[in-house]
């Protein structure tokens, strides 16, 4: 899956669920598309944040590997 496709898949996830951590997005996309590197999900989230389509909240949640992760949220004004 190329970067543009990953970005679209990640944004589609956020439009459906509104808020998530990178590992939550990773769990969902890996289940649907086979193994996707978590770093690719983080890159897509970073690019979508730079494009003002997502924003990082101050909220933290325990991640898949025991470390706290920030929750990102879709900016519904930019849909």
Please characterize this protein's 3D structure.
Strands 1-3-2 form a 3-stranded antiparallel beta sheet. The mean pLDDT is 90. The longest helix is centred in the first third of the chain and has 15 residues, at 3-17. The chain has helices at 3-17, 22-33, 38-50; strands spanning 19-20, 54-62, 68-74. The protein contains 3 helices and 3 strands. The protein is of the alpha+beta class and 79 residues long. A hairpin with a 5-residue loop joins strand 2 and strand 3.
Distance between the termini: 23 Å
Described by the principal axes of the CA atoms, the overall outline is globular
Helicity range:
40-55%
| Helix-strand makeup class | alpha+beta
Strand content: 15-25%
Short description:
Helix content is 51%, strand content 23%. The protein contains 3 helices and 3 strands; from the N terminus they run αβααββ. The model has no long low-confidence stretch (mean pLDDT 90).
Task: Produce the secondary structure layout.
Blueprint: H1 3-17, E1 19-20, H2 22-33, H3 38-50, E2 54-62, E3 68-74
Antiparallel strand pairs: 1-3, 2-3
Helix pairs in contact: 1-3, 2-3
Keywords:
79 residues, alpha+beta, three-stranded antiparallel β-sheet, 3 strands
């Amino acid at each position: 899956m190329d970067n543009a496709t990953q970005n679209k898949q990640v944004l589609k996830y956020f439009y459906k669920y509104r808020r998530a951590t990178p590992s939550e997005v990773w769990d969902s996309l890996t289940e649907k598309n086979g193994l996707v590197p978590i770093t690719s999900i983080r890159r897509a989230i970073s690019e979508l944040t730079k494009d003002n389509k997502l924003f990082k909240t101050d909220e933290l949640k325990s991640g898949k590997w025991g470390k706290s992760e920030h929750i990102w949220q879709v900016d519904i004004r930019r849909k």
